[in-house]
Write a structure and sequence with these properties.
Distance between the termini of chain B: 32 Å
CATH architecture of the largest domain in chain A: 3-Layer(aba) Sandwich
Shape of chain B: elongated
CATH class of the largest domain in chain A: Alpha Beta
Largest sheet of chain B: 5 strands, antiparallel
CATH topology of the largest domain in chain B: Alpha-Beta Plaits
Radius of gyration of chain B: 17 Å
Shape of chain A: globular
Oligomer: heterodimer
Distance between the termini of chain A: 15 Å
CATH topology of the largest domain in chain A: Rossmann fold
CATH architecture of the largest domain in chain B: 2-Layer Sandwich
Radius of gyration of chain A: 19 Å
Order of helices and strands of chain A: HEHEHEHEHEHEHEHEHHEH
CATH class of the largest domain in chain B: Alpha Beta
Strand order of the largest sheet of chain A: 7-6-5-8-9
Largest interface: A-B, 17 and 19 residues
Number of domains of chain A: 2
CATH superfamily of the largest domain in chain A: Aspartate/ornithine carbamoyltransferase
Low-confidence stretches of chain B: none
Strand order of the largest sheet of chain B: 2-3-1-4-5
Structural class of chain A: alpha/beta
Number of helices of chain B: 2
Amino acid sequence: MRNLLSITDFSVEEVNEVLETAADIIVHPEAYSEKCKNKILATLFFEPSTRTRLSFESAMLSLGGKTLGFSDANSSSSSKGESVADTIRVVSCYSDIIAMRHPKEGAPLVASFVSDVPIINAGDGGHNHPTQTLTDLLTIKTEMGRLDNLTVGFCGDLKFGRTVHSLIQALSRMKGIKIVLISPDELKIPDYVKSDVMDKNGMDYVETRSLEEAMPSLDVLYMTRVQQERFFNEDDYLRLRDSYILTLDKLSTAKKEMCVLHPLPRVNEIAVDVDSDPRACYFKQVRNGRYVRMALIMKLLGIK
Amino acid sequence: MKIDPIKNGIVIDHIEAGKGMEVYNILNLSELDCMIALIKNVPSKKTGKKDIIKIDASVALDLDVLGYIAPEATVNFIENGALVKKSKVALPETVKNVIKCKNPRCITSVEQGIDQVFKLVDKENRVYRCIYCESKAKD
């Protein structure tokens, strides 16, 4: 029985298999509408995340399956002090596959130790969120036509952004990837991501503070939010905030076929007028999230 | 100072000076009924000083735990007064319930009844990470 707890649980071939199925679902959704008939997905959200939960539920319903679950810990037995392990032992009797989000890092691994059905990590604290990474990869692949030989810029909060770390990890297994890390000094990528992921895999990367300087070289721009609470003082925040806001003006030097991604929710880091630019792909990313989750559910259930 | 040689038992030698008591505690040697000697700051040609533990019984030791706490140590197995086996301990691939994860966001901080497991990820720099949250073990 397979689980998806971290993107590295899947080989490059398995990631490609999921992406190829998802791409086929986009073209032939009707061929998949009964693939999971009589199967039940449990969505266990020990912390709220409406967007991710709805994406999983939409994916299962689109496959002809059913869903059950809870959307926050207060409506589950964990509010009475039940352990993650016990909750999973019980729910795995009621369902065929479980997608879980938990505020504590490593909770899905604990679940996988006791579950009789596959576990999908739908986010565990600041640790992993592999279905977001699959979504990002599918979007890059469908927009750029490839997952190799790309210059990928990550902009904003690179210190705390788990989606950034996971995507870099996934890209470290592809050929010819160049990473451009664009952030203020306060929010630079952690050293362990450099040493354990990028250096270890011989990745080509540069660090810069300037989005404008990096822009012309990028094939993909992955935006994240610079949050005020990450700064020690307000002056620094105000000084740097605008540097990491993407505007149409800043996009003017970008390649015509570049694509802009964002894990959402967006606050102000991408100006609203960028939405109408053909390079803005962050809402397509949301749609892709549903298809990639459909493909993942099928893979983990062993359905072709 | 002189400690008599043991006839049947184990000598843990070349423990880094000052770490002997930690090794004694982590191996739960206080629970043994046999004679045990912990000798600190023994002169050493190699390192200047070292600690030694002599256990006057052939007991099963958790060499993985020893390898994590004192990777430089050697374990000598004595039978009828003669050295029958000499083992150099190595850094274990995993250590269970020796290190506690200090990340407050880790599931181990709240979940009852799960083992604290750390995995060796970088042998050269002796880096262990929690299998749950991947936080680095701190000394």
